[in-house]
Specification:
22% strand; OB fold (Dihydrolipoamide Acetyltransferase, E2P); 16 helices; binds magnesium ion; five-stranded parallel β-sheet; disordered N terminus; alpha/beta; transcription; binds adenosine-5'-triphosphate; Rossmann fold; eight-stranded mixed β-sheet; nucleotide-binding; 3 domains; 470 residues; Helicase, Ruva Protein, domain 3; 17 strands
């Protein structure tokens, strides 16, 4: 870990600010593709898995062009082959206002909400509505502010003179505007922008024309040119909200505060219908645009048959995002039924999906991934230690090797060596079992661990019964 916790007062401040937690995918910054969507060997934290990365890139390109929605993709492959990593890479490549919603299939099962409601909410969170609004602004340089107080001082009125290079106008001020001007410390010579609808004042900077007026001015004073043309201008502001946010804000029982609490409860279908038709209206008027985003459902085999049939239907709806799912299961039982199918997903849904498969990494790729993770965790590995970890990654699992980086580092620090050496990795390997060794241990200690007693007892029971019969 990069946590350089130090209680030594001489340690620099930088050490303290570096104390951030490092997540499993924090080294991933994108899919690492070039402009032609060809995967680079090592880029943006991504190594190997070229075919799957390119496929993900093609899908992304289609979303960015706004061409597809309501499709579903499955990323299938063995554990720790980068399925979640690829989804994270996709999320980072999407534009800032394209929604990316991440859901783990088991989150759908909650007591507060039905399964279909939480899936519907996830769907609607993944659809953005880009709303365009025109606001009228008054922008100009302040020539003079005059404030008249009544005799008692309780009411204030005033006048504000603003100019552009072409015109000058005097505006009457109410007491609220005067308060705001005083709060923002607006002086003659400042260039300001006033939102006509809300009356909000923002200071854009000082006019160049007044630059020489004062000698003592802070180094951070920003100078701007005095605006030209009309004082009143129109500006288009664009902001993106998700359909789910619109639902919650308009839901009478919840109100927008529920967005912060995260406790939104169920939303009535009638309200959703109303909002859909309102949004359709805005689209026709050219006020809004739909931005279909991505819903990523990890560990999708945890969904049950009801969820799958809901997905089948929901994907065909008009307002559906792109749904990306990931699973590491082979042929397994579909939850809620006694039937088996590939990845635990019903065949009719599978048939509608584009399937991307990931494969196990080879020796060089494993080594590169271990190397990148070590750099991310601020751990210095000597070449032999890196080789050993890579070899472990190949023989046990990539995750196990990555998990050993931090303990090895700790063991090295205890030995007071700055770099992690083979010895430290060996020690870490000794302290922490991989799955295989743990299974071996479980086999050896069979019957001694909790949770097995019942089974063992019943096995003994059967044996006993057989003894009697023979
Ligand atoms: N191609 C890659 N480039 C860089 N890092 C990778 C790559 N593939 C996987 N990793 C890293 O390896 C670790 C395991 O990968 P990940 O969690 O994506 O596996 P997964 O396929 O989702 O496995 P599971 O099926 O168990 O969920 C993560 O820390 C991930 O960031
Ligand atoms: Mg995963």
């Amino acid at each position: 870990m990069a946590a350089n916790i130090s209680i030594n007062p001489s340690s620099s401040i930088r050490d303290v600010t570096k104390m951030e937690r490092i997540g499993a995918h924090s080294h991933i910054h994108g899919l690492g593709l070039d402009a032609n969507l060809e995967p680079r060997a090592s880029s943006q934290g991504m190594i190997g898995q070229g075919k799957a990365r390119k496929a993900a890139g093609v899908i992304l390109r289609m979303i960015q062009d706004g061409r597809i929605a309501g499709r579903s993709i499955l990323i299938a492959g063995p554990p720790s082959t980068g399925k979640t990593a690829i989804a994270m890479g996709m999320a980072q490549t999407l534009g800032a206002d394209v929604p990316f919603v991440m859901l783990t299939a088991s989150e759908v099962f909650s007591l507060e909400m039905s399964k279909t409601e939480s899936l519907t909410q996830a769907f609607r969170r993944a659809i953005g509505v880009r709303i365009k609004e025109e606001t009228e602004l008054i922008e100009g340089e302040v020539v003079e502010i005059q404030v008249d107080r009544s005799v008692t001082g309780s009411t204030k009125t005033g006048r504000l003179t603003l100019k552009t290079t072409d015109m000058e106008t005097v505006y009457d001020l109410g007491s609220k505007m005067i308060d705001q001007l005083q709060k923002e410390k607006v002086l003659a010579g400042d260039v300001v922008s006033i939102d006509k609808a809300s009356g909000r004042i923002s200071k854009l900077g000082r006019s160049y024309g007044r630059a020489k007026d004062y000698d003592a001015m802070g180094a951070d004073t920003r100078f701007v040119a005095c605006p030209d043309g009309e004082l009143q201008t129109r500006k288009e502001v664009v902001h993106t909200v998700s359909l789910h946010e619109i639902d919650v804000i308009n839901s009478r029982t919840q109100g927008f505060l529920a967005l912060f609490a995260g406790d939104t409860g169920e939303i009535k279908p009638e309200l959703r219908d109303q909002i859909n038709s309102k949004v359709a209206e805005w689209r026709e008027e050219g006020k809004a645009e739909i931005v279909p985003g991505v819903l990523f459902i990890d560990e999708v085999h945890m969904l049950d048959i009801e969820c799958f049939s809901f997905l089948n239907r929901a994907l065909e709806g008009e307002l559906a995002p792109l749904v990306v799912m990931a699973s590491n299961r082979g042929i397994t039982r579909i939850r809620g039924t006694k039937y088996k199918s590939p990845h635990g997903i019903p065949v009719d849904l599978l048939d509608r999906m584009l399937i991307i498969s990931t494969r196990k990494y080879d020796a060089t790729e494993t080594k590169e991934i271990v190397k990148i993770r070590a750099e991310e965790e601020d751990v210095k590995l000597v070449p032999d230690a890196l080789d050993l970890l890579a070899q472990m990654g190949l023989q046990t699992s990539l995750r196990y090797a990555l998990n050993l980086i931090a303990p090895s580092q700790l063991l090295a620090t205890r030995r007071k060596t700055p770099n992690v050496e083979v010895e430290d990795v060996r020690m870490a390997y000794k302290y922490f079992c991989d799955v295989e060794r743990s299974a071996q241990y479980a086999k050896e200690t069979s019957g001694m661990m909790f949770g097995e007693e019942e089974l063992v007892a019943s096995v003994n029971g059967v044996n006993a019964a057989m003894d009697i019969s023979t």
